[in-house]
Amino acid sequence: MSRVRTGLTVTAPDGARLVADLVLPDRLPAPAVVIRTPYGTSGCLPEALTLAEAGFACLIQDLRGRHLSEGTFTPGADEGADGRTTLDWTAAQPWCDGEVFLYGLAYEAYAAWCAAGHPAVRGIVSRQPWPPIGSPALDEELWWRTDLGTGRTTRTGLYDATLARAPELAALIPTAAVVEAWPVDVGPWPATPSTYRTAARRTARAARTATVPSLHLGSWYCRSAPTTLRQAMLAPYAEVVVGGWASALTHRLQSECALPEPPGPHPFALTLEWLGGLRRDGCLLLGTGRWTDTDPIPPGRPGWTALPLGADGTRLRHDPADPYPSAPHSADLAPPADRDDVVRLTLDGPLRWHGAPRLTAEVTTATGAELVATLVHERPGGAATRMADGTVPVATGTSRCEIRLAPAAAELPPGHRLHVELTAGRTPRHPAPRRRAELSFRDVTLHLPRPRKDAFA
């Protein structure tokens, strides 16, 4: 029977005490799985108990400044030194056989990569990793900071409760003014593509220089999908599985969600199988042979299918007093009605793609703006869900632009439709121009990366 110890402390180089819980297997010493989390150790206990049943000791540690650990939590700042100190301590414990595996979801995965170069590490499991790549979705970023990523503890539900009590705050999300009215300190705002650039470079470097196997688990429904794929392509001993998993860190599911969670093994079940393969007969194996070339990781240089959308001469007119709204990831998206600030272009299924689509267009405008392209999947019954979006700045005059959208492994059967919506900003997800703007389009083309043979089999 697993044994649980609580309140263990590791002293960081500056004297801060980092508090952890430990779950031990029956047989000791054992290899250790370390989870360093900002989300509270209690949420990881079910996984820790399962790991202990599989023969691993599992250490779950509150990150600096979170929950029971001392210090101040600054996203992206201290995980290297604190992580190395924690692994020094773990590998030296009598219950550890000297081998350590790192596991983490979202920010936990970032903390794992920051310590990946430690000599005791034998493998890394990175699930839906932080930070996101590219232009941040401001509503999702503010939700993460409000509920999960700032302060000493998590505050699940505070973001939704705040907007329910004061819905007028949604219009302020793309601006610094929201900070003054928001119930918690969310740090520098608004976020920009450079906000987490240093942290993203740090994890990319860690993945590229990894000398141990790594398992990369991602979800096409999560803004972390590009990060998952990037790290997997950089890591020299990587295996990757990208599915349709939903979690609290993926998106907040709505009752009208049109995205069913597909059948198949849970990502943690894949983690257990992968770890078991590495530990089989005491040997280090580079994978279990479960995954093949048909798994959903796009090729580095895919073939493309170009689909003209027939939008020549189409225009949109943006009114800053009534900007076109966004909606939660899983919320039903009604078709635009009697609005001239959105251009909706439609393709009928069947459609298949595997990777990151691109949208190209010639755009003419007298006012600089942020052009947002949104892919909306409509099912035969009418339910519609945003699949991906992307942005690009458009300068005054006429110019060619290209928008790179989030990657997906998608198959839309006959009867399904794909809508491409073009807007000038899309609040609160993406900021909108503060002045009136008119944009006209020519030669709008959607470029879909073709799947590899049998990728959907």
What would the average pLDDT be, to the nearest integer? 87
> At the first level of CATH, what is the class of the largest domain?
Alpha Beta
Tell me the name of the CATH homologous superfamily of the largest domain.
Alpha/Beta hydrolase fold, catalytic domain
- Computed Rg: 23 Å
**How many structural domains are formed by the residues?**
3
Overall structural class, as computed from helix and strand content, comes to alpha/beta
Shape: globular
How large a portion of the residues is in β-strands, by DSSP E? 25-35%
The CATH level-2 architecture of the largest domain is identified as: 3-Layer(aba) Sandwich
Helix content: 10-25%
> How many beta-strand segments?
19
User: Which consecutive residue ranges, at least 5 long each, have pLDDT under 50?
Assistant: 280-296
Briefly note the CATH topology name of the largest domain: Rossmann fold
Main β-sheet description: 8 strands, mixed
Distance between the termini: 41 Å
3D structure, described in words:
With 457 residues, the protein is α/β, with parallel strands linked by helices. The protein has three domains: 3-133 and 193-282, 3-Layer(aba) Sandwich (Rossmann fold), CATH 3.40.50; 138-181, no CATH class; 304-449, Jelly Rolls (Sandwich). Helix content is 20%, strand content 32%. It contains nine helices and 19 strands. It has helices spanning 45-53, 79-91, 107-114, 138-149, 158-165, 177-181, 197-208, 225-234, 267-279, and strands at 3-11, 17-24, 30-37, 57-62, 96-105, 121-127, 214-219, 238-243, 304-308, 314-318, 342-348, 351-355, 358-365, 369-378, 384-394, 397-404, 408-412, 417-424, 437-449. The strands form four sheets. An eight-stranded mixed sheet has the order 1-2-4-3-5-6-7-8, with helices on both faces. Strands 9, 10, 13, 16 and 19 form a five-stranded antiparallel sheet that branches. Helix 1 links the parallel strand 3 and strand 4 (57-62). Helix 2 (79-91) crosses helix 3 (107-114). It is globular, with a radius of gyration of 23 Å. The relative contact order is 0.11. The model is unreliable at 280-296 (pLDDT under 50).
